[in-house]
């Protein structure tokens, strides 16, 4: 892959796809960002920084499950074609027996991933979302494929949604939550009370796709995002909330969205890469 190294390439060789659980899919898509830019550079920065990771994540070696790095999705085409490209790449991963680990890119990317899961035959699954924003607008600036509308597209598809850490939303989004039964624990509850786990209701699907927008975490941890909002989750709270879901349900994939590297501040690139690997580790340990 030209200029896109494989994940953890300093420690592992690129395996055959069939020998890997984790299929890392870079999606450098950036079209509807509404404040700061740079998310198109996120996937490559995360892959580059992954060469500085240790195989041992502190509790296990996630790479023992196999990590295959896919070709980046072509994002040079029209938005709907980009969504279709993401969906095909995701479906191919699932059909091969792999788990998509998607690196964005703006949050619109998740819509393509969700379509891909459906196209691969996974009908009954829910979404758990860490984010600063609800992303439940019908459209934003006239665009139905906006990053601010991605979770609305998911709920429109009939997919149950549980939101964590939200702290920026409009009245339209609040009304939509109530009308369509979107579950949530917002940042003003999670953060001051240092809540480390959630309890999914019994009727929430057994399969879960987890979408993590970097801006869901506090800007003191990740200022490297286009739309930072104070009052977010810290490092350990994020990992613990993810693990609480992994202990209750089968994680069928996850993504890291909206990471926008800041030139000269490699600490954030490394942190995003480590976060990706830590989530792999949580998945690994809760599968067995």
TrEMBL record:
Entry keywords, A to Z: Hydrolase, Manganese, Metal-binding
One Pfam family linked to the record: Arginase
Alphabetized Gene3D superfamilies for the sequence: Ureohydrolase domain (3.40.800.10)
Manner of cofactor binding, per the entry note: Binds 2 manganese ions per subunit.
InterPro entries attached to this UniProt entry: Agmatinase-rel, Ureohydrolase, Ureohydrolase_dom_sf, Ureohydrolase_Mn_BS
Superkingdom per UniProt: Bacteria
UniProt-listed GO biological process terms: putrescine biosynthetic process from arginine, via agmatine
CDD domains: Agmatinase-like_2
Cofactor annotation: Mn(2+)
GO molecular function, one term: metal ion binding
Position of the signal peptide: none
Annotated residues for binding of Mn(2+): 107, 131, 133, 135, 213, 215
Keyword Hydrolase: yes
Family per record: Belongs to the arginase family. Agmatinase subfamily.
NCBIfam families linked: agmatinase
Protein name listed in UniProt: Arginase/agmatinase/formimionoglutamate hydrolase, arginase family
């Amino acid at each position: 892959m030209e200029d896109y190294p494989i994940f953890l390439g300093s420690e592992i060789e690129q395996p055959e796809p069939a020998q890997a659980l984790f299929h890392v899919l870079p999606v450098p898509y950036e079209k509807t960002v509404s404040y700061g830019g740079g998310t198109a550079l996120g996937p490559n920065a995360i892959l580059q920084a992954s060469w500085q990771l240790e195989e041992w994540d502190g509790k296990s070696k996630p790479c023992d499950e196999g990590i295959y790095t896919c070709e980046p999705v072509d994002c040079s085409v029209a938005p709907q074609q980009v969504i279709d490209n993401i969906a095909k790449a995701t479906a191919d991963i699932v059909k091969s027996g792999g788990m998509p680990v998607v690196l964005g890119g703006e949050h619109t990317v998740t819509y393509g991933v969700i379509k891909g899961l459906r196209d691969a035959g996974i009908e009954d699954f829910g979404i758990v979302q860490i984010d600063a924003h609800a992303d439940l607008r019908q459209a934003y600036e006239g665009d139905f494929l906006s990053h601010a509308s991605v979770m609305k597209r998911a709920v429109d598809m009939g997919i149950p949604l549980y939101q964590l850490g939200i702290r920026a939303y409009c009245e339209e989004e609040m009304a939509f939550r109530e009308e369509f039964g979107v579950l949530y624990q917002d940042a003003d509850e999670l953060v001051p009370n240092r809540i480390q786990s959630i309890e999914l209701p019994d009727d929430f699907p057994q399969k879960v796709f987890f979408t993590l927008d970097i801006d869901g975490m506090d800007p003191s941890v990740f200022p490297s995002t286009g739309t930072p909002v104070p009052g977010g989750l810290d490092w350990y709270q994020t990992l613990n909330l993810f693990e609480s879901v992994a202990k209750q349900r089968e994680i069928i994939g996850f993504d890291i969205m909206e990471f926008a590297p800041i030139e000269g501040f490699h600490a954030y690139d490394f942190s995003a890469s480590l976060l990706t690997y830590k989530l792999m580790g949580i998945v690994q340990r809760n599968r067995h």
